[in-house]
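Lecture notes, unit on protein representations.

Consider one protein chain, 179 amino acids long.
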Amino acid sequence: EKSNVPAGMPPSPNPLGLFVAFLPSDIELGEIHVDGGLDEDDLHLMLRYYGEATDEDFIEQVQEAARDIAGNLRPFVATVQGRRQLGDKNADVLVLADHKAFRLARDRLPPSDKDYPAFLPHITVGYEIGDDKLALSTPDNDVAFDHIVVGNGNDDWMVYILGDIPTDALDDVNPDDMG
């Protein structure tokens, strides 16, 4: 069975559940990654986590929201506000300053009862890698994002955030009708 998992979200033996995340631009990955940390393909900023989802209508609603976000956002840069450990798994994270793109995306996505009570924009760089290694991640303190991904277990779907015409709108334009 062939998976359509894009770079950025590896397949997992235990399905990840349905989620939506921004992915850093490919040129940023080498700056964020540190030895002993997560693989470059695992670096992301989780926007919403829905858990196990099998309702096709709901999955399509999430995908449509992500397409809408991708069609209305251009690539953007967020600033690293700090570096710290987070959660009971001692995740070493880059904490990002709030950005209007994060708020816009979360407002347009369906709410989830699986989200943490408060949204803290961050990228997990590794687990228990230590302050010295974490300090090496993203030395310029900026992270460019240009992808959004909707994942559901091993069935991942990705679109670039380019501000292009949403795919659905393309059906309304016939190049042969343009004079």
